[in-house]
Amino acid sequence: MKKIYLAIFAILAASMPVCAQLTLTKAVHSPVVGDVVNYKEYDSTAVVPKNIGLAQTWNFSAMTSTQNAYATTYTSTSSTPASSLFPGADLVRMSAGNDVDFLNVGGSNYEFLGNYKPSGPEIMNFTNTAVMMAWPVASTNNYSDVVSGSITSGTTVIAVLGTISYTASGTGTVILPGSVTHTNCLQVIQSVSIVIGTGTNATNYSHIAYSYYSSQTKHPVAEVQYEKEVSGGNTTKSFRASFNTIGMPAGLTDNMNEGTQLSVYPNPASDNLTIHLNGVVKMNKAVMYDLTGKVVLETAQNKIDVSTLEPSVYLLKVITDKNVITKRIVVNH
Predict the structure, then answer these.
(1) Taking the alpha carbons of 196, 219, 60, 215 in that order, is the dihedral positive or negative?
(2) Sign for the pseudo-dihedral over CA of 124, 112, 131, 49
(3) Residue 141 above 90 pLDDT?
(4) Element containing residue 41 per DSSP (H, E)
(5) Among 67, 124, 197, 238, which has the highest number of CB atoms less than 10 A from its own CB?
(6) Could you write out the three-class secondary structure of 91-155?
């Protein structure tokens, strides 16, 4: 009888759903051409949560918006200036400003090859590339890589040498501004230490980033970054906390000003969606993103056909001649 009970218990245990810890994989999390990630920056007068370990809670809900926003876009190398300087690159990342990061994502690793700044121009080219992610990445995984290369500005060439490493240092729950909760999250801490130049003229640069990946999104839902630069007797430090707007649709507020109001109906929608603006504004275009941050629809019309979209939650950005207004849209056929 005891063996029968044990056998039944084993069958029941095997059939119970198990919430596996999040693992980052190339197939799901590696960036590709067309990815767009929109971030909003926040600040805090309190301690920013950075605790590590299993079953943690990282609560960012008390942080306040700085109103700064930026987008990170991923595009092809063929459409990017200076791509010939990075023959190994197969993807380009562009954020605020005109700086361009060249990446290689076609292999088993996610690698950073260098950076191009049009002003100057200034070119940072790694002959020994930096591995950002060695797929797959799961809890307690860690990786370290030596990087080397040079920075060229005009006729001046300066040596660059350093290390880049990451640790999948925690699992748990992330609470975003707006009290939006993401469970089954993975914390990844990335550290960069680079020496630019040699001798007394060397500049020491360090960077540490806490990234929080959610099972609901492709790119991190939260990133906290610290930078430090020591050159001669001068030290500069910076801090930035940014949150992926795709990961916090329910916590977003519409950016209303100039007396405008946005109506989008019906919501949920099954076939057609209508955008209506009250106020003296003109709609330039509307862009809809899925939960991975990829653009699924872009139009200048105020009537949108969503019948071909998969049932899901989407983020609709309406860009007017005065502001950008954001709405969460549910498509449900």
Answers:
(1) negative
(2) positive
(3) yes
(4) strand 36-43
(5) 124
(6) EEEECCCCCEEEEECCCCEEEEEEEEECCCCEEEEEEEEEEEEECCECCCCEEEEEEEEEEEECC
- List the beta bridge partners of residue 144: 165
Which is more confident, 131 or 80?
131
195: amino acid identity, one letter: V
Q: How far apart are CA 218 and CA 252, in angstroms?
A: 19
- % residues pLDDT > 70 (the chain): 87
| Residue keyed to tokens 């899901």 | 312
Give residue for tokens 């954020």.
95
Question: What are the tokens at 184?
Answer: 């089954």
CA 307 to mean position of chain CA atoms:
28
Cβ count within 10 A of residue 205:
17
SS (H, E, C) 165-187: EEEEEEEEEEEECCCEEEEEEEE
pLDDT, tens only, 14-55: 433 445 789 999 998 999 888 888 888 999 888 999 999 999
Phi, psi (deg, nearest 5) at residue 218? -85, -50
How does pLDDT run across 272-287, given as a tens digit for each residue?
Answer: 998 887 665 688 899 8
Instruction: Give dist(CA 74, CA 92) in Å, integer.
Output: 6
Question: Would you say 123 and 113 are in contact if contact means Cβ atoms under 8 Å apart?
Answer: no
